Amino acid sequence: MMPRLLITGLSGQVGSALARAAAGRFEVTGSFFRQPTDHPGGFHWDLRKDIEPVLDRYRPDLIVHTAALSAPAHCEQHPDDAHRIHTLATRDMARWAQRRQAYLIFLSTDLVFDGRKGDYTETDPVNPLSVYGHTKRSGETACLELCSTAAVIRPALIYGRSRRGDRGADEQIRHALSDGRTLTLFVDEFRTPVWLDDLVHVLLHFLGRRITGLFHVGGPRRLSRWEFGWLVARAAAMPTDHIRPASLETFIGAPPRSPDVSLDCTRLTTEIPFALQSPEEVLFQHQPR
Ligand SMILES: NC(=O)c1ccc[n+]([C@@H]2O[C@H](COP(=O)([O-])OP(=O)(O)OC[C@H]3O[C@@H](n4cnc5c(N)ncnc54)[C@H](OP(=O)(O)O)[C@@H]3O)[C@@H](O)[C@H]2O)c1
After folding, report:
1. Per-residue model confidence as pLDDT tens digits over 233-274
2. Average pLDDT, the chain
3. Whose CA is closest to atom 29 on ligand 1?
4. Closest Cα to atom 47 of ligand 1
5. What are the boundaries of each domain within the chain?
6. Is any atom of ligand 1 closer than 6 Å to the C-beta of 33?
7. What is the CATH architecture assignment of 161-191+222-262+277-285?
8. pTM for the full model?
9. How many Å is the maximal CA-CA distance in the chain?
10. Residue 289: which pLDDT band, with cuts at 50, 70 and 90?
11. What per-residue confidence (pLDDT) applies to 2?
């Protein structure tokens, strides 16, 4: 019998890609919220409500908690929802997984850091600047303190082909450019973008071996938002003149932006037998379209 894998956020960018890749190795079920999926194991679940009764019903051997309010600006407007989904739901999943000795992976974020240092390792102190980052950090703590069978993964900015073609960081840039919009991208805001397929590969590897602890998962290249946008346009043979460079100093809005949340992923490399690819390799060789 195949192990039962429950994915929260089956309708999301990571959840849907993981579900596709995990089919055949796991018996996959998973939840959506506002956007039903055609996945046969999909069911509606509002993670702001009870967690444990749903887990009792599905009794998964493994859980990957990808569901989130993944737009930081939305979290500033809806802090209670962010707290429930990122912190309380994660805490309840961690308690349940500990009791049942199920394996749990929680997807956190690079935005637990304030971005003043860059090249962060897992032992660097966190200092989130946003509701999104704070509530994710509280979820991390609950997971690691309450569940000995849990892994917390902090992905960097994710790009690649998403279920509906509009979630990947690269897809959003291509859409804007093909609509003729001008994109203003920061030259002094750095991330280590990770390819969706690589992240899924890491998740499958962790699920297979039940690796526990805290891990950074970013690509091998530290790029500014502007450099990333420029690469995406070049790889898609789109004109780059609609990509305007700007400095973070000109940013007005909430939450504040973290200048450099690039991730050091040395710890990950001790666990995985494959290398993560750079955006240059991915965008020019496997143009996701
Ligand atoms: N995308 C990135 O660049 C990035 C970077 C770092 C970390 N992360 C983290 O990685 C994880 C996966 O990201 P993603 O890009 O796949 O996110 P996503 O595409 O925005 O998907 C979010 C998922 O959460 C679900 N959801 C939202 N509100 C819910 C609620 N109240 N109850 C239950 N489910 C709810 C959504 O369901 P519906 O669509 O059905 O409403 C969707 O399936 C997230 O935890 C995110 O914080 C993402």
Report:
1. 999 999 888 999 999 999 998 899 999 999 999 999 999 999
2. 96
3. 33
4. 70
5. 4-158+194-217, 161-191+222-262+277-285
6. yes
7. Alpha-Beta Complex (3.90)
8. 0.98
9. 56
10. very low
11. 96
Q: Which residues have a Cβ under 8 Å from the Cβ of 74 and sit 6 or more positions away?
A: none
**Do the beta carbons of residue 41 and residue 84 sit within 8 Å?**
no
The CATH number of the structural domain formed by 4-158+194-217 is 3.40.50.720
- Residue 96 phi/psi, 5° resolution? -65, -45
pLDDT of residue 286: 74
219-258 burial: b if 16+ Cβ within 10 Å, else e: bbbbbbbbbbbbbbbebbeeeeebbeebebeeeeeebebb
- CB 105 near ligand 1, within 6 Å: no
What's the distance, Cα to Cα, between the start and end of the chain in Å? 36
Ligand 1 pocket member 90 (CB < 6 A): no
